[in-house]
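User: These chains co-purify. Model them together.
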Amino acid sequence: MKRLQENRIDQISKYLQANKLDPELLPEILDHLACEAEESLWDGQAFEQIYQDMVKTADAQTLLNLSVDHQNLLAMEKSLNDIVFENRNKSYGAYDLRKGYGQTVQRAVVMGVAFFLLLVMFPKLYARLTPDPKPDDVAWLVEVNPVNIKMEEPPVPPAKEEPAPVQKTVKALTPEVLPDNEVEIEELPPVVEDLQNAQPSTATVDGAENIDVIAPPVENAPAPKAEVAGVETRRDETFTHVEQSPQYAGGNEAMSAFLRKNLKYPRPASQAGVQGKVFVQFTVGSDGKIENATALKGIGFGCDEEAVRVVKMMKDWMPGKQAGVPVRVRFTLPIAFQLD
Amino acid sequence: MENNTTSNEYVRGTLKTIVLNLLAEHDRMYGYEITQEVKDRTGGAIALTFGALYPVLHKLEQDGLLLTESVEVDGRLRKYYSLTHRGNETARTKTDDLERFIDAVRLLLAPKKLATE
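Assistant: Joint model of the two components:
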């Protein structure tokens, strides 16, 4: 099989292009002519000769006719879009959209109208599809069993025994005749005139009249209450908080003067340089006496004992009072030991 | 040349049917192949010119009856044509139509022959 060389093919191609053949047709015509030429080569002809023949058969007029024929055949269905998109990229998408525009609009209109009609007609359609209930329609069946109904006998109301109307009567017994020893003599209470000159007694005694009898006062008469109800104070109890705190006679200043005068700094404490507070707890009795003095918390070195000793020396406290009554009160006194 | 132009006149009307019919017999063909096939079968009585064939092929393609497929052969593009499903149906109906038409034409031409016999 003889093949056309590329330059020969180019030659034919250029010839076709020079005659302004439709580019859509060009590759096919080229192939066609090339095939023809190859066959002629096969028959032993020279290419120059073949080319001359080719140009003779496919002369300028023939090629022009071909292009025009082709255009006319295809242009039958050419629309405005084809003219607009001539020599433009049709595969881009706008061409398809334009081409399908008519159909799309048509479809959209049909669908829109159908939807609108459906929307408008829906109530009527629905009413038509659901039949009206007829008056003799049976909604649902209920099986009914015969029920045996017994007449219940009404309870007989108990006959009310109405008391028969009683006539007004007065006790009037017929006097009974009895023998003398059986007759009871009724004792009637003494009349007012009898009591004017005699005292009531279990028996009637014929005594002396006008004796003044002074009856003693009844012993269990209620005594006036001295204490206010509800605020009962017990003297034996020891309070920690009272309405009126106990106080050293002469006030706090007198007490601190007393303490200053009597307190002696213990030697071991002053040697050790100990200072601080000793809390002495004691009880102020309802009579103002100091009892049970102890050091609650101390600093040691003899300070505790010294503090307790001085506290015990104190007298003349004014007792604390609860509801106005002097009571025993527990009292804590801080005593400060301070080195100068 | 005289003979050739008259045959071309008839070919013009039947060209579509001929092309579709040929493609129905083959899987795929290219333009030159079709002209060769026609030439071989008719003994050169009908010669398709490229000027007539290619516009018809393009028209059929535009109508959706043909599929095309370009293959590079010997340094040039060769366009193969094959029938679509619709092209197959059209080929059948067109062939039937043409056969009926030929029969009718025969009937038109026949009486003379009968009379002469």
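Chain A touches chain B at residues 3-4, 6, 9, 24-25, 27-36, 58, 62, 65-66, 69-70, 73-74, 77 (CB under 8 Å).
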